[in-house]
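From the shared-data thread, chain only:
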Amino acid sequence: MSSDAGEPGYEESNWISMVDLMLVVLCLGIVFLSAAPQPDAQVASRVTVSQGDQTVDTQPTYSSAPSSIPGEHTVPVPTPEMFWGQIHALEDEIGTLTTQLQASSAVIAGQGAQIFKLGGEVERLTGVVRANDIAIAAKDGSIESLRGRISLQSDVEAQLRQELLGLEGSMNSVVFVVDRSASMAQSGRWDSAVKTVLDWIEHLPIKKVALVTFGGDVETVPEEIGASPAWRPDTREIPDASVEHRRRLATFLRELKPSGATRTADGLRRAMDFRGADAFILFTDGAPDSFDGGRSGDPREQVMMVISQWVSAAPGRRVHVVGIGDYFKGSMRDFLLNAAKAGSGTFIGR
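Structure, as tokens:
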């Protein structure tokens, strides 16, 4: 018998080697298991439930074991913590929105208060404007009433002046026929005539007025645009006696200088061109000494003929005569009085 086989030390060493080998294998297994991927979520598997003779598939249940079916994917399982986290996040968002809404509401409320305040101010100012409008309307009514009374008073005074002067008939539309011959330059006659004409236009009840002056030639205001033929009189309008027109008449008269002959008939014929005249007022310092060369006869007779012709053409027409200077000397007096008589008018000496 061999001494090696019988020795106890040999068996013991073999057993120790086996133990070491097992330890190594165990360590490797542990290392392998620790290195293997762990399932990070539960997987779903279908559960079959028998109900009598029928087999019913229920909704998927969840297991922590990985699926053994090839090709299937794991489905995450919601946990209460996930739900509560989402709920808390929504609550935070709702809180933020609520805060913003409250801030916006406060701004809107402030703006609404401001708008309300402005609306009250606008209403107050509207009331003030209305009150002012009423006051102005009342004042306007008072002013219009006052103007009416003044106008009425002016008309009454103008009518009274006409009566005091003895000028009969309507004076609504008047043509002044003014002598500006060379003799009118004597003794302030021209200035006196101009002053009287302007005063009468201003203070008599005259609504429309035109002016004709005669001397070496004949001029009119408004200016003449071709004299009307003798067979077609009454073709020019008489302007309203406005402030502007009266000012133009005054300027025209004051710029004139007396000169030339006394062409009374030609002046009266030119006055006949105006339509709708109620009266002619003739201002002259003497008897006529000439007239348009195309006619023949006595200049005085020409004057009487023109006056009679114009007055007889329409009822109510009158020719008033104003004598300037030494109008009562010699035959001058008779001529002026007869001219006024032929015109159914009044003679006035200045």
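Residues 1-8, 38-51, 61-68 have pLDDT under 50 and may be disordered.
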